[in-house]
Design goal:
Blueprint lengths: L1 H14 L17 H16 L5 E8 L2 E12 L4 E2 L6 E4 L2 H14 L34 H6 L13 H9 L7 H9 L16 H13 L3 H10 L44 E3 L1 H12 L3 E2 L2 E2 L3 H7 L13 H10 L7 E3 L4 E3 L14 E4 L5 E5 L4 E7 L6 H13 L6
Antiparallel strand pairs: 1-2, 1-12, 2-3, 4-5, 6-7, 8-9, 9-10, 10-11, 11-12
Helix pairs in contact: 2-12, 3-7, 3-8
Length: 410
């Protein structure tokens, strides 16, 4: 009987094992336990005010876990409590993972970042700009896809004639990623390639480029080269049937798509699920210059390239979507922020209303998830939440402020 109970205990511990080594106390990593409680109180206040059902916050410094908090409810409708390993739709936090996949191929000389997208996707050979059908001044490159200067759009954040065409095309109603990308290639660009930073379907197109260069579906490549080696067992384009009870849900969530099934469109721009612990491992790999626990995903120079300012001075930053993102994500010079390859990057210590360091990089998801990496402070922060879109900016700014107020060493 004792042996059986011990076995059950060992299985339970393994199931809820910490994703990275844990510090004995926050003070060992430069954080104040008292001030961290203020951080938790801010999250609890969001739960009590019904801004969000619940949240998971995971902080890692110097490769060790400072705190890993599950607060509130995983699903308000059922009353299920939030868990440290609750699974979230990370939406656009899929983009950094897809970009890393592309950089792996670049390191293997299977993908040329400076090459025209049409080299891998011939359907983009005759793409036009605007409803007038102007010729591009230069080809859209793979590099453009990574930094959102491709000229593509989402069709969701603006109301230009091109945005309206995108909405009518219903690109996310396609039966496959291949079909979706072919439809996109037949639509006009919103901007000339390189002229403007426009948050867009660029990373979905990049995902298709990855498939062509790798010779396999995006989900398989990501699993084989990123999530598998990094032991991100709950990260992917679908939820394991045995893990469905850990899926966090938005308030009043409606939907008929079965998350346990492989989706028709493998959206590298917004189709993945993850947990805080998994994403912290991914972010720690980047902080370590492409290496985690002896597993190398990328070289240090490749990570440095991805997290550097990639937007030319001539690139228009003040698009409607960039302005709406604001601090900490909009690549706006007046906020001290720009964009790398897959991430927002901080380029100035001032100008932003939020704390951080020059060189920190970050991104988010439209359902509220948010992460950032601060190399100067050797800090990884992951917030997992499923919130209404109108609260996202407030919650992201609050989280960043409340995390840094608890970091007290110099």
């Amino acid at each position: 009987m004792v042996t059986k109970m011990l076995a059950v205990f060992v299985v339970a511990v393994a199931a809820f094992a910490q994703p990275l080594p844990v510090a004995a106390r926050p003070e060992d990593l430069g954080f104040s336990s008292k001030r961290l409680e203020l951080t938790r109180q801010a999250i609890r206040a969001n739960v009590e005010s019904k801004r969000v059902p619940g949240a998971v916050l995971l902080l890692v410094r110097n490769g060790r876990t400072v705190t890993h908090d599950a607060i509130g409810l995983q699903d308000r409708a059922t009353g299920a409590p939030m868990k440290k390993d609750s699974i979230f739709r990370i939406m656009s936090m899929s983009k950094p993972i897809t970009t890393v996949a592309a950089m792996i191929l670049a390191e293997e000389n299977k993908l040329d970042l400076g090459a025209p997208v049409a080299q891998y996707l011939p359907e983009f050979k005759d793409v036009k700009v605007g409803v007038e059908g102007a010729a591009p001044k230069r080809p859209m490159t793979v590099h453009d896809l990574m930094r959102h200067t491709s000229g593509l759009t989402y069709g969701l954040f603006g109301n230009s004639p091109v945005d309206q065409i995108y909405r009518k095309a219903n690109i996310f109603g396609a039966l496959s990623l291949t079909e979706m990308v072919k439809t996109i290639a037949g639509l006009p660009l919103l901007h000339q390639p390189g002229d403007a930073w426009e948050y867009s379907v660029s990373t979905d197109v990049l995902g298709r480029v990855v498939e062509v260069a790798a010779g396999k579906d995006l989900d398989l490549f990501v699993e084989e080269r990123i999530t598998g080696p990094l032991k991100m067992s709950d990260t992917g384009f679908r939820v394991k049937p045995t893990a469905l009870g850990r899926l966090a849900r938005q308030d009043a969530e409606t939907g008929t798509i079965d998350p346990t099934q492989k989706p028709a469109i493998l959206s590298g721009g917004g189709g993945m699920f993850s947990i805080a612990g998994d994403y912290a491992r991914f972010a720690q790999m980047l902080l370590n210059g492409g290496l985690l626990e002896g597993v190398r995903i990328l070289s240090p120079k490749t990570v440095a390239l991805m997290t550097s300012d990639q937007l030319p001075a001539t690139t228009e930053r003040h698009t409607p979507v960039a302005i709406s993102l604001g601090a900490p994500l909009g690549p706006l010079p007046e906020l001290g922020t720009s964009f790398g390859l897959g991430f927002a990057v901080r380029v100035d210590a001032g100008r932003s209303p939020l704390p951080g360091s020059v060189g920190d990089f970050s991104w988010s998801g439209i359902y509220g998830t948010y992460f950032w990496v601060d190399p100067k402070e050797k800090l990884v922060a992951v917030l997992m939440v499923q919130s209404p879109r109108n609260w996202n900016g407030v919650i992201w700014r609050q989280t960043r402020t409340m995390v840094y107020q608890a970091l007290i060493d110099q």
